[in-house]
Every structure is written in C-alpha cells, then in structure tokens.
Design brief:
The protein is α+β, with helices and mostly antiparallel strands. The protein has helices at residues 10-15, 18-24, 77-92, 121-126, 134-147, 156-164, 170-179, 195-204, 209-224, 259-276, 283-311, 325-356, 362-365, 370-390, 397-410, and strands at residues 30-34, 42-48, 55-60, 64-65, 69-73, 100-104, 109-113, 119-120, 228-230, 239-241, 246-248, 255-257. It folds into two domains: 17-113, Phosphorylase Kinase, domain 1; 119-410, Aminoglycoside phosphotransferase (APH), C-terminal lobe (Aminoglycoside 3'-phosphotransferase, Chain: A, domain 2). A hairpin with a 4-residue loop joins strand 6 and strand 7. Residues 35-41, 43, 57, 59, 98, 112-115, 120, 237, 249-250, 252 line the site of adenosine-5'-diphosphate (ADP).
Length: 415
C-alpha cells in the first residue's frame, strides 16, 4: 500500500527489497540524505555507512507538486511513466541511463544507480566547466530514442502498443501545455515576479500577436503530433555528467510527441546558459564553447538519425520498392530541414517559459543583482522572439548560430 516515505521509513522499505539489499548490503547503518532539487518529487541518496562505496538513489512521487506544496495536488501516476520510460531506455540506450534496482508502481518509487561521480550538467555549466563528450552523447541519445520509437523505426502494431503505455501521462502533458505554451505569454498568477522583465514582456511580447500565434502553433504540435517517445523534459538539469560520461535522468514527462520538442529544449538550455555567461565568469571563451556544443548536438543527432534510417528495413513508414534512391534522399533532406526549424520553434518557447514562468533556470534566476538579471532575462525574451520569427529561414544549424551570435554582438550584455 502507498505511503509517503521519509528518512525514518526509508531503511525498512529498502531492506525489504532483495535486489536493493544486493547492492547496499544488509546493514542497520544507512545514511540517508534528501537531495531532491527538482520541481516535482522527493529524492534520497542512501549509503551503507559501513561501506560508503555501496549506495542507491530512491526517488518517490508524492501526490502533489513539490515546487508548489501540498495545496497543488498532482497524482502519483507520473512515476509509472518514469518507470516505463526508464525501463525502455535501459533497453535502447543502457549506456546513457541509470540502472534500475527496483521499480515499485504501487509505492510510486524507483530505486536506481547512484550517479555519484557525476554532477547535474546545469550546475557544471554555470561553473564554466567544459565536458568533451556531452554534446555527442546528447545527440546519440536523442537519435537512438527518437528514431527507434518512431514510425520510421518501428513496426506499426508494436508502436501502437508502446504508445498505449504512455498515452495517459496526461497530467504532466497538461503541465507542459500550461507552463510552457500558455501562462508565460499572458498575465498569470503563476508567473515569475520580476517587475522590469514583466513590464518589458507586457509591452513587447504579450502584445505581439504573430509571436503568440506561433507559440500556439507549437502548442498544437505538442498536443497533436506523435512522432516518437520523447523524454519531454530534456534540459540541462536532466543530465548528469563528468568528463567521460553522460547520463539522462528524470523522464517522468515521457509521452509520444514531436521530435523537435526534445531537440529544441536541450538547445535552448545551452543558449540560456550562454546568455548567463555574459555575467557569470565564463566569459567569451566559455560562451563560444556553449554555442559550439549546439552545433555538435545537432550534427551528431541528425547524422545518427539518418544512419539509423538508412539501415532500417521495413517499418510502419518504410516499404521496400516504394521510393527510388533519389526520392529517398529528397525525403530525408526535407525531413531533417523541417525538423531543424521545428526544433528552433520549440527552443524559442522554452526560452520564454524559463524566463517568465514559474520554473526558471538557476543560470539566470540565481543572479542576485536584479538589474543584471532583468537585463539578461529581457535578452532571452528578445532571442525567443528572434528565433521564433526567423525559424522558417533556417536551412542549417549554422544559420541558427549566426542568428544568436549576431544578436549577442549587437546587444551589449556584459556586466
Ligand atoms: P524531479 O523529478 O523532482 O525533477 P529529478 O529526477 O530531477 O527530480 O532528481 C532531483 C535531483 O536528484 C537531481 O537534480 C539530482 O541531483 C538527484 N538525482 C536524481 N537521480 C539521480 C541519480 N540516479 N544519481 C544521483 N543523483 C540523482
Ligand atoms: C510547474 S512546471 C514544472 C516544470 O518542472 C519540470 O522540470 C518541467 O520542466 C515542468 O515544466
Ligand atoms: Mg522531474
């Protein structure tokens, strides 16, 4: 039966799970640290005090939104979808996700590998650390998971059965519909309170009909397009990294949606961090590293996606003998070009929501000086509008980077 775990009840719960005991050992000396810094759930690191090399992570969903508190109910079903997605990712890309030791839908709990040698990418990037493999790893992760759950990479019936396992992640989809595609673009009580940024947004963004209609187009894609199983919350806080490895965590938003949502979200997080490093100490050199990673992410993603496509036999979408080699190449070129533009549009939405909405990013929100912070927030809103307005002119990732670089060079942001 479900009960909310706390530091006192975690030991008994974990010691009742044979697979977890195999990892932790049998001990009455468990050290329990609540390390959750996310918006939704509780996360404990549990270590055998006698053998500190033995540890696990326990994540539990509670029936409310942690960010807002108990007054904001949210069903625990999200953990079921996180478990399902992590199980699937362990089949598709085991090198990029934590190993599962125990998955408990009734307790809405997951016990998994402790990534003790890794840190959250967002925190590393705020500190100006470079990670040589992260961009290629992200590109490969997205290509493998997106292609191999798409109609290009799966048989029709198998895919519909897989879709069925994620269709009802409706509450978290609704959170995204509200907090990424709706509330930031209007006056709403949930929005972040930053008077200067709000005033700028009211005067320039919330009365820009073309921009708001574009955002609505992307909301429509999010709601209606079912390209593949998405992670659906793929930002730099959902990646744990070190110099050699990249792990993807926190897939509770997983659902079948448009490819470009995952791609655009992660791209936007590198841009947001780049804006922040006009104030943070990384300077021009680190900003260049961040922008270069966007190119590597896209190039790796698109190359691997096409490679998987080239190697794919029959699938829901592919039938031998239907297309000539030339038609096949034309289809793939047009498809990738469209996907780039779609990713740019989703990146634009993500930049605005992280600036105006309830769930900001520490890169900017943790800047103490309100004048500096607001200046950077407004820059991110300008970038969001610029990228959105120009997305259909982008024919390469280089075009997107030129847009962003030109913006930074014309706008004096250093402080
Ligand atoms: P939420 O769903 O509430 O956003 P997350 O899954 O993002 O929670 O986890 C919150 C934090 O817990 C992460 O930012 C990270 O610091 C830590 N964490 C989560 N999973 C692991 C793991 N497998 N190994 C180590 N730390 C983890
Ligand atoms: C209330 S929305 C909370 C946000 O946190 C998660 O990380 C998702 O990005 C979600 O939109
Ligand atoms: Mg989460």
């Amino acid at each position: 039966m479900y009960r909310i775990l706390d530091r006192d009840s975690v030991p008994e719960y974990l010691m009742s799970l044979p697979n977890v005991v195999d990892v932790l050992g049998t001990t009455s000396n468990l050290v329990i640290d609540e390390i959750g810094d996310g918006n939704l759930n509780f996360v404990y690191r549990v270590t055998n005090g006698d053998e500190p090399g033995r540890s696990v992570i326990l994540k539990q969903a509670v029936p409310y939104l942690r960010l807002a508190g108990e007054d904001w109910p949210l069903s625990r079903d999200r953990m079921t979808f996180e478990i399902r997605a992590l199980q699937l990712y362990n089949e598709l890309v085991p090198e990029f996700v934590p190993t599962i030791f125990h998955a408990d839908e009734e307790m809405s709990a997951l016990v998994m590998q402790n990534l003790s040698d890794h840190i959250i990418l967002r925190l590393g990037m705020i500190d100006g650390v470079t990670y040589p493999k992260v961009a290629t790893d992200i590109g490969v992760f997205m290509a493998e998971t997106l292609f191999r759950t798409s109609a290009w990479g799966m048989d029709s019936e198998d895919r519909r059965q897989l879709m069925d396992r994620f269709t009802l992640n409706s509450e978290l989809c609704k959170l995204t519909e509200d907090f990424i595609f709706t509330f930031p673009y209007m006056t709403h009580e949930s929005n972040y309170e930053s008077p200067e940024t709000e005033a700028w947004a009211d005067a320039n963004l919330r009365n820009n009909a073309a921009y708001k209609l574009d955002v609505l187009r992307f909301k429509d894609l999010f709601v209606a397009k079912t390209d593949a199983l998405l992670h659906a919350d793929l930002h730099s806080g959902s990646l744990m990294v070190n110099q050699d490895e990249t792990f993807v965590i926190d897939m509770e938003f997983a659902y079948f949606g448009p490819f470009g949502f995952d791609v655009g979200k992660i791209i936007s997080n590198f841009i947001l961090c780049c804006t922040a490093h006009h104030h943070l100490p990384g300077g021009a050199e680190y900003r260049e590293w961040l922008l270069d990673q966007i190119v590597v992410i896209w190039d790796t993603f698109s190359a691997r996606f096409r490679e998987l496509w080239d190697q794919q036999g029959e699938s829901a979408m592919l039938t031998a003998g239907l297309l000539s080699a030339e038609e096949d190449a034309q289809l793939k070129d047009a498809f990738m070009a469209q996907l780039l533009q779609e990713s740019a549009g989703f990146a634009a939405c993500s930049m605005a929501r992280r600036t105006l909405g309830i769930a900001g990013v520490a890169d900017i929100r943790d800047i103490e000086d309100p004048v500096v912070r607001s200046n950077l927030e407004i820059a991110n809103l300008e970038l969001s509008m610029l990228v959105m307005a120009n997305r259909t002119n982008l024919s390469s990732i280089g075009d997107l980077l030129t847009l962003v670089r030109d913006f930074y060079s014309q706008r004096s942001l250093d402080s």
